[in-house]
Amino acid sequence: MRFPFPLTDDFKAWAYELIFALEAPSPAEDEYQRERLNSTVTESTYIVSRSDYVLLVDTSLSSITLTLPPSKDDGWEFEVVKTQSRNRVIILPSGSDTLGGETSVIVHDQWTALKFRAVSGGYIIV
User: Fold this and answer.
1) Model confidence over 41-67: pLDDT tens digits?
2) Domain locations in the chain?
3) Among candidates 83, 77, 33, 80, which has minimal Cα distance to 61?
4) 38-125, which class in CATH?
5) pTM for the full model?
């Protein structure tokens, strides 16, 4: 592409700053993402919220049961990561929902990560 004026270094610097400013999240969005990424679960039962994004599940003291909210066919995704080798994570759907056609998912191995997506009638593992 040819420009009808010379591209000075000052203009290039201004253009790069503009582009990156448009692509960068606002401070509020950045803080929201950090909060979503830092959800650590230690309670023996936890109701997953639609504001959860990555759940780091610490099973060092006991097994933990996660209950998912009723699914909506909107593609909402979240991830569950088992961070400890002891005990297990039990994931249960809500009501008549299923998890990839199953009534529960049990995670035994440390560092197993499962990503779920809300679909009609439940969740699938992606």
Assistant:
1) 999 999 998 888 899 999 999 999 999
2) 38-125
3) 83
4) mainly beta
5) 0.71
